[in-house]
Amino acid sequence: MIDHLGLNVADYPRAKAFYTAVLATLGHGPVMEVTKEQSGGYEGCGFGPPQQPKFWIGTGAARTGGAHVCFTATSRAQVDAFHAAALANGARDNGAPGLRPHYHPNYYGAFAYDLDGHNIEAVCHLPQG
């Protein structure tokens, strides 16, 4: 249903470095950048699989907190690595990796607040194995 989404950030270079490190744990990296010259003022970076920027961060009226973004992980180990990388790169913990059976029996997720206070999550829906 959703093609892509974006968040405005207070410090674009810092946020780009943060998301580059954190999303690498899920096998994603920067795939497209838009410069101020190209857009008439906006500067941003899209992350995702090659040629498919699905998650964007960029300049604009920064909003602190309020947004929740969940990224798909293909294993529980990726969820663990995502959470560790987020905390190592300046995020605040909002829920250690673990099962959340109130969602469903195999919901394994981890939560952190990014540099702008947005609640980011990684989740694996697969059973342990």
UniProtKB/TrEMBL annotation:
InterPro entries: Glyas_Bleomycin-R_OHBP_Dase (IPR029068), Glyas_Fos-R_dOase_dom (IPR004360), VOC_core (IPR037523). Residues 1-125 form the VOC domain. Coiled coil: none annotated. It comes from the Bacteria. It holds the Pfam family Glyoxalase. This is VOC family protein. It comes from Lysobacter silvisoli.
